[in-house]
Amino acid sequence: MQQFSNQEIADLKSRVDQIHDLLASRRDEAPAALRHSAMETRSETAADAALLDQLAYSIEIRRIRRVHFGGADMSGPAWDMMLDLMLASAHGRMLSASDLATGAGVPLSSGLRMIALLEHCGLVHRSIDERDRRRTLVRLTDIGTERMASYFKKIGSARQGGQTLAA
To answer: In what order do the strands lie in the sheet with 124-128?
Structure first.
């Protein structure tokens, strides 16, 4: 899948604005039916601009996440697992490896490999469930909790302040 740079997104937004201005200048020349169509196009253009802004923000969040967590692959199912673990921790709950795999929508074998990689990065810890020794419990380490909290604090403050996100 092709990724767009912030500059490419800004160029697209600029082009959309140019088209909007062109349509607005022609509005006075058009018959009433076309003027109505131009107004619809203008509202669609505003929606397109909002979509482009959201797209740029989403891309920037993904880039920040990549830098923030270093070598750990924090995308797809592995990221879903980290989110589930953070939420479980906030509610004082423990999740099993099978809970995490199911929640991430992957087979248990794939989930176990992902958990092993997260453990290798120091973000999670596995232990045997003392009540049912067949189950493996997974929890965030202190480092994992800190990294998740600082990531969301960074994203939240950038979003509220309207700042550009920088790595």
So the answer is: 95-96, 136-140, 124-128
